[in-house]
Amino acid sequence: MLVRLLYASRATDAIDDALMHSIVERSRANNLEHGITGILSVYPEGGIFLQVLEGARSQVNALYGNLLRDRRHRDVTLLHYAEIEERHFAAWRMGSIDLKKVNRSTILRFSEKPVLDPFSMSGGGALALLEELAHTAAIVSRDVGQGG
Predict the structure, then answer these.
(1) Looking at the chain, which terminus has fewer C-beta neighbours within 10 angstroms, N or C?
(2) Hey, CA dihedral for 63, 69, 70, 74, is it positive or negative?
(3) What is the mean pLDDT of the chain?
(4) Pairwise CA distance, residues 64 & 47, whole Å
(5) For residues 100 and 98, what is the distance between their CA atoms, to the nearest angstrom?
(6) DSSP-derived pairing of the beta strands 95-98 and 37-43
(7) Which of 2-6, 103-107, 114-118, 129-133 has the highest mean pLDDT?
(8) Domain boundaries in the chain?
(9) pLDDT digits (tens, 9 = 90+) for 37-67
(10) Which residues lie below 8 Å from residue 1, measured CB to CB, with a gap of 6+?
(11) Helix (H, G, I), strand (E, B), or coil: what is residue 139?
(12) At how many degrees (to 10) do helices 57-69 and 17-34 cross?
């Protein structure tokens, strides 16, 4: 049974390139082993993470449980959870999107304001925003991995 989970969280410390590199590299290694794919979107100025995870229900649930305990996050908020027939982000073990490079009008299409605030967005709107960003040049790191 495949599921898709979308959550938002706030960073406990400043988000810099070293932190992002560490998170993405660790995610790629762990996610390949557990069959998890997804997109990580980071808004450093707001200290916000927005991430979608896809994979087996047990694996995605276990990873989300780990994220809830991760001290680098606070205000972890589940925005969307659904059983799915197929993955939307199958080509990524873990891609990342740099929202500093995204046209604010793209964010405004899915949000009340042209500033990313997933905590005030519907889960469907946040997911649609990530899908839009995944199909544009907003991708910082795409990992077409094994089997992808």
Answers:
(1) N
(2) positive
(3) 84
(4) 19
(5) 5
(6) parallel
(7) 2-6
(8) 2-141
(9) 988 888 877 888 899 999 999 999 999 999 9
(10) 56, 57, 83
(11) strand
(12) 150
